[in-house]
């Protein structure tokens, strides 16, 4: 198995951050949703990253996506989804935390774009040496 190139490493890291960004978007889209029961209430999605080794290099991959958080019971007897006690279950999503995660994710993605740009520039400069 050959070692990973800089392009492979940065590309995989960008793919992992894209999964993270998609889960954040899903969480924000469902942040204000309610459900009839605790079991059906939305829980925030969080990707779990794992280190992948190939040769003497390492990169990141998404191992799985977990559902996190505990839905909150809210008393709203006028809601059509309310149970016998008048409660609905609010999504277990903190929009502020998700926005912080989004900024961090976009910065990490941008860092990997810069790595790709630098690697490309170095490869082109190396090719110019042969002229």
Keywords:
two-stranded antiparallel sheet
Q: Short description, anyone?
A:
The chain contains two helices and five strands. With 131 residues, it is α+β, with helices and mostly antiparallel strands. The protein has one domain (6-125).
What does this structure look like?
With 131 residues, this protein is α+β, with helices and mostly antiparallel strands. The longest helix is centred in the C-terminal third of the chain and has 35 residues, at 95-129. It has one domain (6-125). A hairpin with a 2-residue loop joins strand 2 (44-54) and strand 3. Strands 1-5-4 form a three-stranded antiparallel beta sheet, with no helix packed on it. Strands 2-3 form a two-stranded antiparallel sheet. It has helices spanning 6-29, 95-129, and strands at 34-35, 44-54, 57-68, 72-75, 87-90. It is elongated, with a radius of gyration of 21 Å.
How do the helices and strands line up, and which of them pair or pack?
Layout: H1 6-29, E1 34-35, E2 44-54, E3 57-68, E4 72-75, E5 87-90, H2 95-129
Helix pairs in contact: 1-2
- Could you report the average pLDDT, rounded to the nearest whole number? 92
Compute the number of structural domains: 1
Number of strands: 5
Instruction: Provide the succession of SSEs.
Output: HEEEEEH
Q: Tell the overall outline.
A: elongated
Structural class determined from secondary elements: alpha+beta
Q: How far is it from the N-terminal to the C-terminal residue, by CA?
A: 32 Å
How helical, in percent, are the residues? Answer: 40-55%
Tally of DSSP helical segments? 2
């Amino acid at each position: 198995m050959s070692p990973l190139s800089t392009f492979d490493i940065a590309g995989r890291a960008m793919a992992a951050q894209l999964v993270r960004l998609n889960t954040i978007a899903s969480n924000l889209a469902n942040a204000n949703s309610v459900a009839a029961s605790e079991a059906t209430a939305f829980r925030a999605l969080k990707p779990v990253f794992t280190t992948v080794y190939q040769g003497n290099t390492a990169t990141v991959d998404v191992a799985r996506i977990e559902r996190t958080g505990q839905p909150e019971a809210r008393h709203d007897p006028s809601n059509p989804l309310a149970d016998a006690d008048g409660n609905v279950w609010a999504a277990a999503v903190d929009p502020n935390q998700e926005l912080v995660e989004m900024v961090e994710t976009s910065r990490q993605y941008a860092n990997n774009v810069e790595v790709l740009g630098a690697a490309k520039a170095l490869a082109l400069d190396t090719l110019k040496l042969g002229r």
